[in-house]
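Hi R.,

Here's the chain you asked about this morning:
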Amino acid sequence: MSSRVTSARVLRVVAACLAVSALVIAAGGCGKGSSGGNERFRVGLITKTDTNPFFVKMKEGAQKAADAAGIELITAAGKFDGDNASQVTAVENMVNAGVKGIMITASDAKAIVPSIEKARAKGVEMIALDTPTDPQSAVDALFATNNFTAGVLIGKYVKAVEGDKPVKIAMIDLSPGVTVGVLRHNGFLSGYGAAQTTQDMTRDIIASNVVCAQPAHGDQAKAQTAMETCLQKDPDINVVYTINEPSALGAYTALKTAGKENNVLIVSIDGGCAGVRAVKDGKIAATSQQYPLKMAGDGVQAIVDHARNGKNTSGYTDTGVTLITGKPQVGVDSRDVQYGLDNCWG
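And the predicted structure, written out as tokens:
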């Protein structure tokens, strides 16, 4: 057989192999696209504000997770805690931008639900972070601190410190009706033993030990004013529950101005670095530390798993809470200030 014929046959075999390879690659490419593959897409994060250190850290966590997954993160926030209108607009804008999923810390757990339902109807994965929607089933999944448990921990701490001594409690709360605030408020009273746990956790419980309850919207300046109001109502307040650590520091300022800072036990929830340092300095007796980085990271991963692998995440995932104090009490699980500083945010 001539070398020319042999060469022709070799060329035909090579061409056939290349054609088959091209079909295999094309088939593989189609299959990859249908399951999401590793293509770059967008996800959204909507927080209550963009100034609260908790939400700043949440945004950082989401960005880190998005970068690791090779996707684009777009963000938005309310102008203030409780600003539902801005969050509604943000959901609409993100859906129009073609996001695969949106993570949201709802300013109004009920009012945001219609917007969430519209987004889900268009195939957008909706993940709640930190704050449960009302109903919780309005979203695909929730990643959050157990806020009732966070309240219970500081309530138990106060009970362990004060024992059976009579207490007069001031409660510096969030905004009326906000789920997170209600759960923390009721958890604290349940942990202290001032109120029985009920099935209805949608409204604040007020116990006889509570001589003053004021909303301060998580704001330090407003909390200072709220504490001043409470001291006018009853100057003998000796326990102060606060919704978060900025509120605790506002309350402390008011108490110090009145010369009462050494006679009042302040407890709080958050676990930010400024708050943990306030525990170290003795301004706050104890705080329940939560973990916004984990919430955001888990939320991004859930959206990525759904978009790329068709995996569905549902229900509630507890991202953990730890009591931080410099003065531990028998029978109350806690970690020291150094642990709090090692795991704080902000």
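The chain has a mean pLDDT of 88.

Let me know if you need anything else.
M.
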